[in-house]
Amino acid sequence: MKDDAFPTTNYLAWQFAQIIAGRFERALRDEDLTLAQHNALLHTVRTPGLSAADIARRSDITAQSMGAAANQLIQRGLLRREPHPTSRRSMCLFATDEGRAAAARAAAISRRIESETTAPLSPDDSSTIHRLLYRLIEELNPDALA
Q: Organism's domain of life (predicted)?
């Protein structure tokens, strides 16, 4: 059966996300980081003192997965945990100097992957896609942009 609506925007977005995630995940192996660990570092560098649950919401992954990623980074000395100033049940995460350095190296990897995956586009097209994706995320998961 021929489907004139194929490929859908959802399918194309999923395919592109798979391509980027796969390339990024493979490249992060050089830093001994997973995507979840990268997100934990990224968010703690940008917003020190977040909890693992806060980062999970921003990353749209389960709190358990983010907790495991944060624990691994703490064991490696890339993050440290401190008690929350007002909540006994929550712990705040902070990047260590080594964690900030790892996050900077991961950011360089991210820029390289973005450059490679958007190379077929003109600068205007790349800017347009960035702007449109930002608008969609702003509407669908604004925590991701916090």
A: Bacteria
Structural domain boundaries in the chain? 28-115
Q: What is the pLDDT of residues 14-70, one digit of tens each?
A: 999 999 999 999 999 999 999 999 999 999 999 999 999 999 999 989 999 999 999
Q: Contact at 8 Å (CB) between 43 and 107?
A: no
Two tokens at 132? 């449109």
Condensed to tens digits (0 to 9), the pLDDT of residues 112-135 reads 999 999 999 999 999 999 999 999
Across the chain, the runs of DSSP E, i.e. the strands, are 79-83, 91-95
Omega prior to 48 cis, within 30 of 0 = no
